[in-house]
Amino acid sequence: MGIIAISGCATGIGAACRQRLEADGYEVVGIDIKSAEVVADLSRPEERAAAVEQVLERTGGTLDRLLLCAGLGGHIGDNAKVASVNYFGVVDLLGGFFPALRKGADPSAVVICSNSAQIAPQLGESPLVAAMLAGDEDEARRLADADTGQGVYMMSKNAVGRAVRRRSLEWGTAGVRLNAVAPGPVDTPLLREGLETPGDGDLIRAFKIPVGRYGTPAEVAATVRFLLGPEAAFVHGAVWYVDGGADANVRPDSF
Questions:
Q1: Catalytic annotation on 153?
Q2: Is CATH 3.40.50.720 what the domain over 3-250 is classified as, yes or no?
Q3: What percent of the chain has pLDDT over 90?
Q4: Domain spans of the chain?
Q5: I need a surface site. Which of 137, 167, 173, 229 has the fewest CB within 10 A?
């Protein structure tokens, strides 16, 4: 099936995706802060660059697929780190792996976003999102430290979704499909930690999910697998919601 690099492969959605894709026959090179072929702290620019270099050494400079799952919740108490991992840990890897994907067989990439990215219209107008999209990590970290953890999480995912869509022409012209998946609350360690965090837990529990339950990592992995594969050959620059109808419930007239 080809070679795929997966960030955030050790737990949660990333681990479920790895399991599913390996079962389909992909050769996986994982990137994570532990328990991966390439160990890296994606909050640090130098470690992001080193991770790209190590993956390319392992794959001979060619990738067929890319899946970026690594992310941090706003509950961790380090807003600057959330901004660095969730946004810059995505766009730096997208940029670093783009040349290798262009050499791959029917190449495609998927980024994990969040259904919270569009939950409030004002998110997209924030100075933090602007700093991220401008590539100013120092300013983004400064602004993040002055905001709330949950706000930084949502704004980082807003910027990620826009970064994916902004690359649609360049990547599509180069023959590399790029899409995003926006999960809602999914039963992962990140969600459980958020539920246990005062304030954040109340917000998560108040979020109405029309199907009446949290999602599973395997359900997200099934969507990722489709988007990466040949069946989705005409899907590009899209953000797919896998959230039990939560976004539709909040924004019924926006799509």
A1: yes
A2: yes
A3: 87
A4: 3-250
A5: 173
